[in-house]
Amino acid sequence: MDIQKIFEKVQSENVFIKTTEKTTIDSSQKAVLNRKGNILFNSGDIEAARRIFMTTGYTDGLNRVGDYYNSKGRPLEALRMYWISPDRKKAEALIYQLSIIIQDLVHND
To answer: Rounded to two decimals, what is the model's pTM?
Structure first.
């Protein structure tokens, strides 16, 4: 399977493709990518930063993206970032909030 061709096909669709192949990024490459992700995040390109942080597994970056999504009223995307990072404390808080909303919806119908 040619992964590069797959990524080229969906590049403009802003999607995440999960593969079973582990990426081999050494620590110096990770550091460079994480710095680039931080620059992108700080300049407002959250989606590009998210892709980098997901590739490198940079937990602090994923948490910041989750915080951003949460502040913008996108709790499901925030939950995904917290779960991947893994920040169970923030994830569980969002799960609790979402469960209350669902309970209210069920009881009001």
So the answer is: 0.72
